[in-house]
Write a structure and sequence with these properties.
The protein is α/β, with parallel strands linked by helices and about 130 residues long. Helix content is about 35%, strand content about 25%. A 5-stranded parallel sheet has the order 2-1-4-3-5.
Length: about 130
Amino acid sequence: MEIRMVSVGKLQHGYAVEGCRMYEERLKHYVKLEIHSVSDVKGQYSEQEKARLECERLSKLLVGCEAVVVLDEGGIRLSSVKMAEELEGFQIRNTKKIAFVVGGAAGFTPELKSVYQRHWRISDFNLPHEMA
């Protein structure tokens, strides 16, 4: 199974880079992991326009993925056990490529959310973007 992590913005703080590196090292024994990011939209755009442009960029990286999980504050809550069961379900269904998507500060567009039906909540807490 291949997991593709797709996000808006690159990691900039050392703690986040090191944390991701640690999880990459742990996961490489079980899955092929790809990490991709798109640049966030800067400038005098409305939040809706920023979300639209960022979601267009994200969508290009989701082509070819058999399952896409949008990581969104409005997604379903999963315990660690339930998340492991969901991942096992992907394996049982022989899903080859799964993408997990982290949006930018402007969030996701309703259009992107409607295309991809799986929405998981990372936490009930507000997390800095890099921790997400």
